[in-house]
Amino acid sequence: MTLDRLVFQSLYLYIHGMRLRTVVAVPLIAVSLASCGSSDGSGGSGATLPPGTVVITAIEGIAWDKPSYVEQSIDGNVSIAVKNDSSLPHNLHLVDSESVDEGISLEVSNRGDVASTSVPLQPGDYKVICTIAGHGNMKATLTVT
Q: Could you tell me the pTM of the whole model?
């Protein structure tokens, strides 16, 4: 036997064996794609955000789009969204003035992804960071009034 024949047989067996699985997987992929962009703005590229949401955007160069943001607390809550305009995945965490993580973790894996949440925050300054290794220069300030 030659190496070409073995490769051909391996590919044939792989493709032949996967034919049924591929047909079954197609509807699952369609359902997964259709579910992106939930109505509460929690993810996907088609997310709609509530009015008054501060949008913090990750841009190329492993950076946030602004060095600082200001948002008003409404009934003790702040609506925050992170948008990915970068080719890399990112996340958003808030750290208070005493370096305590506020427990907010918004993930945006792909360009165009948006994730949002509404969180209770006291007035003050918070650090906006991305905790992915190598993204240490992604620092900004969120001032809550």
A: 0.67
